[in-house]
């Protein structure tokens, strides 16, 4: 119920944005920040993140992404989604720092609800989610990948993935942490989260953050072949199994969703945290100069 209500709010927000949907022979639809190549006959869609320059998860991006995902969820012909970046090199730079810096509490609350919604929708999706990680994927970008059923990363040592929040002076929320612990185990998570480590593909594979590392030009073909394997499993048994594995963790957030929003708002509003974000943003700028 809570999910459906939040979804309606996002849909309303989406229509307020007034984006015109572009339909190309019913096989492709796009809003400004997400491109969907939908093969209805095959039951597979490729969702490409395209929020330049670095696919940060801004409020507008989250709204558009959730609307696109809902369209696919509502069409029973779609059984699988491949998530990838339209800009190879960066899968996603994670949460948009500008949504968490210098804004007011109401904005922080609205943003955090949308971030929660993204995680819940992806984590609990009945569809098969395969992540084709064709670039760097820190923090919220890594989280998106962690919600998927299978992760394939491009074998490029310049790319990294992980939860680096502590390096920014912020803390990975408990549900980021839970998702990570369930993926890599407690000790690895404890170590990596405290240090805010980002891992290149080979290490990410060793730790189980990703399931496969393949040459960069094979990420998409690999994702398609993995999807074919997963599609061969009957939906009802796979979905019931997925739900059995994931429901408790998702319920843990659902039951304390409002408290989690309040925690986020008071944490991110602190002067010390705003100062840390300021320093980090300056560092990002200086890196360029
Ligand atoms: C007590 C418990 C309470 C619990 C409360 C919980 C609180 C939790 C709070 C938050 C959790 C947050 C999770 C996150 O996801 S935080 C975001 C983490 N992301 C990063 O650290 C990535 C930062 N970016 C980079 O490292 C690089 O940009 C990279 C992705 C590697 C791409 O590099 P490159 O291609 O060289 O691009 P640039 O660095 O030049 O960036 C281009 C412009 O984009 C801006 N940028 C980059 N990342 C972000 C971002 N995440 N959000 C907003 N903007 C971003 C960057 O500043 C450049 O801007 P400009 O061109 O204007 O200079």
Automatic annotation (TrEMBL):
GO terms for molecular function: delta(3)-delta(2)-enoyl-CoA isomerase activity. It is an enzyme of class 5 (isomerase). Keywords: Acetylation, Fatty acid metabolism, Isomerase, Lipid metabolism, Mitochondrion, Transit peptide. It is found in: Mitochondrion matrix. It catalyses: (3Z)-decenoyl-CoA = (2E)-decenoyl-CoA; (2E)-tetradecenoyl-CoA = (3Z)-tetradecenoyl-CoA; (3Z)-octenoyl-CoA = (2E)-octenoyl-CoA; a (3E)-enoyl-CoA = a 4-saturated (2E)-enoyl-CoA. CDD domains: crotonase-like. Its main location: mitochondrion. Pfam families: ECH_1. One of its GO terms (cellular component) is mitochondrial matrix. Its EC number is 5.3.3.8. GO terms for biological process: fatty acid beta-oxidation. Pathway: Lipid metabolism; fatty acid beta-oxidation. Key enzyme of fatty acid beta-oxidation. Able to isomerize both 3-cis (3Z) and 3-trans (3E) double bonds into the 2-trans (2E) form in a range of enoyl-CoA species, with a preference for (3Z)-enoyl-CoAs over (3E)-enoyl-CoAs. The catalytic efficiency of this enzyme is not affected by the fatty acyl chain length. Belongs to the enoyl-CoA hydratase/isomerase family. Homotrimer. This is Enoyl-CoA delta isomerase 1, mitochondrial. It comes from Nannospalax galili (Northern Israeli blind subterranean mole rat).
